[in-house]
Amino acid sequence: MHAAGEGDSLARALGGGLGMADGGRMNRSGSRLSISYADVRSWHRPLTIMVAAMSALVVVASVGLFADGRELLQQSIWAKPLKFGASFVMYGATLAWLIPKLRRARRTMWTAGTVFAVAGLIDVGFIAVQAARGTFSHFNAGTDTFNQIGQRIFSTGVFGLFGTSLIVAVMLLFQRIGDAALTWALRAGIGLAVLGMALASFITGWTSSAGPRTVEDAYGSPVPLVGGHGVGAPDGGGMPITNWSTIGGDLRVPHFIGLHSIQVFVLTVLVLTALATRIGRLRHERVRARLTGVVILGYGALFTITAWQALRGQSLIHPDAATWTALAATAVMTAVLAALAVTAAHRNESARRNESARRAEAVSRSEPVRRRKAAHCDVNRPGFDGGGD
Description:
Blueprint lengths: L2 H12 L6 H4 L12 H5 L3 H23 L3 E2 L2 E2 L2 H20 L7 H27 L12 H28 L7 H28 L5 E4 L5 E4 L4 E2 L17 E2 L1 H8 L1 H15 L9 H27 L9 H60 L9
Antiparallel strand pairs: 1-2, 3-4, 5-6
Helix pairs in contact: 4-5, 4-6, 5-6, 6-7, 7-8, 8-9, 8-10, 8-11, 9-11, 10-11, 11-12
């Protein structure tokens, strides 16, 4: 199968939302990503509405970063709504595109997507409202009525988000979308996202060593917090933008890596498919599937290492010798596997070329014999006069 045909196959699988330009086709000059209004209309409608709402929140929170000087734990009150809004835009858009592609249990999958959309709007909406109130959304043990009711709804929504992703992950195990590379990218991406959600949603309260503590809200009023993302150090005073801890472990690191793995894997497939128009070795589905698998293994190892690092109470930016060793081993393993995949592709390509050359040579050698036989048959044909008068 040639590159253009495989590019068309991937474009059809991606349904245009993540497909190729020029009507979803890969042309000879390369590939570009495009999203048309018709493509987006085929997405899961409630999830699309959620993505639009999250996009609006990103705009509002971005303005708030500069227009509102209030802070929580030395960070703008709008930093968390901005991060959650951007994260839900990426993950929600992926689910909105993906769910209509699942051909089995379509009604169940539509319902699951709707549950995710509603839970996402409620949970991130609560985060945004608490930020506007100048107080904390996570781990807030305040006794005011709004916070107590909101915390119960907030915790319930987390289970809805996790459960929906788990259902999608299970359904992907029983059906194929696009070629092997794309199918495994989606399966592994959703699977890692579920693990990332589980790590952030269910382990933080058990592993956090911060314990109950009292901090100040944006107005200087005391707020009791119970639990946290940190291991070995309380939340707050971390890295710019992410606010990940610089002095202890932080479970938000592997949570982020796992949650957005599906975007990394699908992008990998798109890049490999685009390169297939220029690199002959990538034109075969098996080669792209192997290279995608290498990326999945390396990325999965990175998720595991950062989770292990955080659970040991170690900051992302201060790895010890054991962490460096694990990272180095992962880098070497990934490079070796990628090299083996490329080498195998080169051998297969050479074998195919040699076979084609042998066939062409056999044909060229047999052509004179065929002609002589044809001429002999013509000579012996009744009524043949040799072309004389």
